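One-letter codes give the sequence; backbone shape is given numerically. An example follows:

. . .
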Amino acid sequence: MDLFQKCRDFTKAKEAMAAGVYPYFHALESGQDTEVRMAGHRTIMLGSNNYLGLTSDPRVKKAAVEAVETFGSGCSGSRFLNGTLVLHVRLEEALARFLHKESALTFSTGFQSNLAIISAIAGRNDVILSDAMNHASIVDACRLSFAKVLKYKHNDMADLERHLANLASGDCGILIVTDGVFSMEGEICDLPGIVRLARKYGARILVDDAHGLGVLGKTGRGTAEHFGLESEVDMIMNTFSKTLASLGGCVAASEEVIHYIKHNSRPFIFSASIPPANIAAAIESLRILEAEPWRVHRLNEIAAYMRAGFRRLGLPMHDSGNEIVPIIPIVTYDMERTLLVVKMLFDAGVYVNPVVPPAVPADYCLLRTSYTATHTDAQLDEALGVFAAVFQQLEAMGLAHRPHAEGHAHGHAHGEHGEHAAH
């Protein structure tokens, strides 16, 4: 068989293109903001992870420009050799201080961060217990490690304890890894339950807080701060492409753990370091997060406001179990209807992200809406008006949502059927 036969057999995307409902790779004609230009027209952005609105902040852009002028456009090497700038060190010190850990280490992307952390820290004689709905970067990191990998049911502490109890008599290191905020559903992990079980069975904890930083906690430090458990989480991973308005990722932990990862992680050792502009943008974004906690509070208010608005419209939301996470999935059921709704919203000036198989079951597709602290009330109300008009059109077309499909068990929306989109 020809190696490329699979390429010829892959027709789903081209079929969507031919039908005029292909929802991907829309090119932005402006900067990432609450409003953007796409396909030549103004669009309210409800599909970005720019949680604090810092990608367009003049202070962040200025810091990036000045870094290029001082350090050039790239580092031309790995951190292990010639690729460490004083900026890398400065950011790592700031992250460790902010996250209340002894040390921190940065990586070139968020996806690479999980590859680097997990593949280094979990070896042949270790076991990884991973939430069934964890991000794809965690799934791939587990594959890259030589550890035994066991999935526990999503946020199910009874199932996690069942696995831990089975391992209790074994001579192995145990790592529990979970998303802090699950990126498609907007759910928060049961961190108190995980901490309780980790203490009981002598396991270590890694929280991927890519969607928790700047979103949860009084000062935006994330999931651990939200629950008051910062000292109980061994390793906290974060990305820079969301709250910190840049590109890259990090892990914060004890000095001995960071020292070990720094000298044993192949994805870290053999990758070029983060360019100066990206590091400087992350440094300035972190400074703004610390200085302007109102952004976190405003983001939580917006999340609650939009949930209330969608309830008034009678739209079926995936139950995230909280009001404050700015990721709100609208259930649209089958894929054809989902792609149509996305196109109708886009044509009316609102951008959202479709979540379709294999990421979800075929009859439980979603619209992932996400929000930014700098969205205005007027923009939010305008978007709600567009949602109302689009779903009224669906009613008129005989494509109203099907309430019987809402019987899906909580937690089936993702993960066990597919893997999360990239960080």
